[in-house]
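Lab notebook, entry 446. We have the chain sequence and a SMILES string for flavin-adenine dinucleotide, and the next step in the workflow is to get a structural model of the bound complex before anyone spends time on docking refinements. Request logged below.

Task: model protein plus flavin-adenine dinucleotide, output structure tokens.
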Amino acid sequence: MIEVDNELCGHCGACVGVCPVNALDLIGYQIELVGDCIDCGNCIQTCPVGAIEGEK
Amino acid sequence: MIEKDLLVIGAGPAGSTAAKFAAKKGLDTLVIEKRQEIGTPIRCAEGVGKNVEEFVEIENDFISKDVEGAKIFSPNQELFEMAERAAGDEVGYILERKKFDQYLVEKAIEEGAEVKLRTRAKDIERDGDSIITKAIRNGKKIKIKSKIVIAADGVESRIGRLTGIIDSLSLKDIESCAQYLVTGIEDIDLDYTHFYLGKEIAPGGYAWIFPKGPESANVGLGVQPTRASKKPKEYLDEFMTQLGLEDGKIIEEMFGGVPVAEPLETAIDDNIMLVGDAARQADPITGGGIINGIKAGKIAAEAAKRSKENENYSKDTLKYYEEKRKQEIALKNKRNYQLKELFQSLGDEKYNSIVSSLKGTDFEKISVASLVSELIEENPEIAEEIKEII
Ligand SMILES: Cc1cc2nc3c(=O)[nH]c(=O)nc-3n(C[C@H](O)[C@H](O)[C@H](O)COP(=O)(O)OP(=O)(O)OC[C@H]3O[C@@H](n4cnc5c(N)ncnc54)[C@H](O)[C@@H]3O)c2cc1C
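Result returned:
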């Protein structure tokens, strides 16, 4: 499972676009987990500021 | 339930252009945009080629800067310059993107499109020969029934994926970017755009300075996540130091992802078309997606009109969009995707030798095409690959 630091987050939505299971959404100024995370790590690796942490 | 001929999801350049032309052609058109303000936060370095004039009437209001050319720096800091004419589509204006996006939406409204902000598409399902989009508007659930949906929801493109037309972006097909709007700049020639190559600066991408005014510029970079060992923001802070801007006056911080992907085989399904970044239409080499988004929006609007005339909203009647966007966008993007893959595989030494072989060239006189043949002549090791691509 990932955790998003929404104050570090730049609200750009890059993580949403690389999530293979469409589990993320940018809602207002929050990245929210709206589906089942599979811990692939794509969002963690893509985030331009390092606002996402998790298993991988 | 709201009923419309056409629902456009996302009010970036692609979506608002689609809405403008569709409304003009007589389609009852609604645009929904999840943000509360069109165009912000911006996620863009704001550069467009002058060919933007073919699509948009240029108003001073949204032009920050008319640039004279491009300066390209190799990893070992050698420089070559391209005059605007030679750089062609890649150099031209630096926009005030927020105003530009708002202008495009105003044009759509003038043609009769309706726009709802703070309205986020959440789900989408087919219903007979129509399509129903479930959205959240100001916190409340609403439903919109339309004959056609144009998904222009940008790099996130949840809608494209919910319909099964596209998959998520692979990490090698996205550039992860960070950018500062810096003011009080003194020692950089702000009549030019500047590009910096090299794996220490921006692995798998490049860094840029795009001038915005006499003392201000967008300073940013994009990296390919699989090649980067740090976060774009960390690379950017180092780049700022390298430019002597570590004490620079930053008045805006911005982050974003750009698709640098192969063109889609299929960007449509029954009742739906994808346009702009949602259809991965940004140029894979430059990451520029504004003009391609505008082109796609215009084509999609024509396809929508044709299917309304035929009262048939199936994939078959939307083929017009597929064929036209392949000619006008995908053909070049496909070549540029292959070139991107090749360039990314080259080491810094290769960039150094390419830049140094180009140095003596008279860029007032040459075109991008002759640039490529120059490249081939001077760098025989990669000649075969480049020839194959072109
Ligand atoms: C750092 C950076 C620098 C760039 N520099 C340049 C450049 O110099 N020149 C250039 O040409 N291009 C540049 N680009 C690319 C360019 O910004 C995009 O290609 C362009 O914005 C794509 O336009 P679009 O209309 O497809 O999508 P966008 O402009 O991204 O618009 C999509 C819209 O859809 C909305 N949306 C998303 N999901 C939903 C939903 N579910 N419901 C409702 N609304 C939704 C979003 O809020 C957004 O407003 C850059 C990109 C980045 C990240």
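Notes for the group: The helical segments of chain A are 14-18, 42-46. Worth checking against the assay data. The pocket of flavin-adenine dinucleotide is lined by residues B 9-15, 32-35, 43-48, 120-121, 152-154, 156, 158-159, 177, 179, 220, 256-258, 276-278, 282, 287-290, 293 (CB under 6 Å).
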